Fold this sequence. Notes:
Helix content: 40-55%
Strand order of the largest sheet: 10-13-14-9-8-15-16
Oligomer: single chain
Number of helices: 16
Strand content: 15-25%
Radius of gyration: 27 Å
Distance between the termini: 82 Å
Number of strands: 20
Amino acid sequence: MVVDVAEVVTELKATYTSGKTKSYEWRESQLKALIKMANDHEKEIIEALRSDLNKPEFEAFVHEISTVKSSCKLALKELRRWMSPEKAKTSSTTFPSSAEIVSEPLGVILIISTWNYPFLLSLDPVVGAIAAGNAVVLKPSEIAPATSLLLSKLLGEYMDSSAVKVVEGAVPETTALLEQNWDKIFYTGNGKVGRIVLAAAAKHLTPVILELGGKSPVVVDENINLEVATRRVIGGKWASNCGQTCVSPDYVITTKAFASKLIDALISELEKFYGNEPLKSLDLSRIVNSSHFNRLTKLMDDEKVFGKIVHGGQQDKTNLRIAPTILLDVPEDSMIMNEEIFGPLLPIITVDKIEDSINVIHAREKPLAAYLFTNDKKLMDEFVGSVSAGGLCINDTTLHLAESSLPFGGIGGSGMGSYHGKFSFDAFSHKKAVLRRSFAGDISARYPPYTTRKLQLLKALLNGSILGILRALFGW
Length: 476
């Protein structure tokens, strides 16, 4: 069915203008509806994710369904506090006065989602937009068609359709949506499309949040619990949608002396997790489609890295599966080191000493995440102080996303803006400054005609000089 995008936006703007979405009661009802939807249709959601990505039920529930529910529950718990005006200090300049910061919704929001976590990354920003009191259009990814169709169906049944709508489709529909004048656009995906979104938004001066990606490095020091470290690297790489995750470890940096031990430990743990025939494992997601499968195999077939595979590399084109693959000492100018991998391939770069790893990271664009495994406090402090990334995690991978008290977002080429928890509410709110004064305390010195004495008094007031104020008042 062809959707008239302009008509959708007009309807949502009318709903927002009516004030309906601004009430606490409306926001609460919609957040509760999302929780009920996730509970009532958990099996259907899991099946849609299995259809799109062959995602294991464990990952579908833990990484997507439960996370959306947790976001809703936190918003419900904190919503009244988030909505309350925040008191602000005033100065002698406006005395007597009081001030506050009022969080008001932006209006009508466009959320363009992605395919790798098609349930979570569609609804998590929707939670923030609704909590902040906005009307919303969600455009799910056509690359995850089963989840897109299910979201369209379920949100139509559970949400207020006058304020929350789903527009399905591909490039033509997304292009039509971007031509409209929105109050904010939230996009999750790759940098190429992110630039298109930003250019379209600029025509209307629309603010944008871009959640992109990049090559997230993992630095592995020698003085660590190697078994735990490798399990956590595997957890963030292959046990997170088979590496198809924006904060997935993209490459590892370790010392030449330690590389063989690290590789042996990774292989040992991978065999425990996925067996000797990982292509048959039910616990490993598949590659999303043939296009991405071909892209990943092209990275492996590059003549510069083909001989660098030290583990894995098996492929099943029929079922779009690639085994966990480790590569050692791939050249810096190879394709695999010059684009985000977004799949089950993990290159390992070696350096003479671990401190050199920071220079390797600095040589690339700022990543969405960066990870360090070490017990060296000095190295930790240097890493935190000098590595610029969307977020850092020490002695684990990807887990910083689980803390709602931390903002999630990129920097530079990995994105702009952030969300999660209160940051989601703030992302879709305008912080309106409000100053309140009475009719008392009106000072004639601020008005014309301007005199030397008035200027002297105002200078003293602005400088906070009691003696200067007295001099001006009494003509000393």
